[in-house]
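Reopening: structure tokens for the nicotinamide-adenine-dinucleotide complex, inputs below.
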Amino acid sequence: MSGEYEGLVALVTGGASGIGAAVAAELASRGAQVAALDLDPAGVPDGVLGLKADVTNDESVRQAVDQVIATWGRLDVVVNNAGIGAQGTVSDNSDEQWHQVYDVNVVGAVRVSRAALPHLRKSPAAAIVNVASVAATAGLPQRALYSATKGALQSLTMAMAADHVREGIRVNCVNPGTAETPWVQRLLDSAPDPQAERAALDARQPHGRLVTAQEVALAVAYLGGPNSGSTVGAALAVDGGMAGLRLRPV
Ligand code: NAD
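Re-run output (same inputs, fresh job):
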């Protein structure tokens, strides 16, 4: 499998932490030249080009994509992974919070895709992989805003797949379950008893443990690469069965 990305250039948003960093490292290990676009690129993996940019700022996104082209002259694979969370019911989040989270999780992917598409059209191996979430379809409590953004990202994936498949650009998404990343660690650290909270979180997963960032990275690498050439508009669950099994408390 290694080498399947040889000669290709990939851009991973949010590539300095958690799932994005695991994706950037995985694509690089398979031979890609990889740029990681992030608000704070300090944590990008070795061998990955860090680009400081904000997916909520169109100009900043365009400059980052221009830098990829200036560096390598091409762009083949885009991974829209940058995202932020929100907790609560619809009564808990203000209009401002709705706009803010939607702007990162959905419009951020739109901005990056828009800037990348002219370059992807020239690639013989073009793919976009969006990192949505189990929250897109699982009906998770206390996650109204976050779930709505991830549902929108999954819908966007299917619509973009339809728009661009005849141009040779495949668009798919990965829907991870709760994954071991700095984001989830921050949530655990803020709990009164982080160890007990971690045990409870593990127990809530159908397969009894958190998803690893590497498991998500392997799914992204599959969807972004040549081995998934006939997979278009799909949502690949990496969630231990949380969404697909429709498990409910007994
Ligand atoms: P993380 O917080 O560890 O990393 C997210 C990265 O995105 C950070 O480096 C951050 O700086 C960057 N980022 C945030 N806003 C940005 C912006 N406006 N512009 C550029 N970069 C920005 O998070 P993670 O857990 O690795 O999550 C990555 C993605 O996976 C997110 O889209 C998240 O919704 C999704 N996801 C995570 C989980 C989970 O349990 N960790 C589960 C399902 C889906």
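The chain has one domain: 9-180+212-238. Residues 9-180+212-238 form a domain with the Rossmann fold fold (CATH 3.40.50.720). Marking as resolved unless the reporter disagrees.
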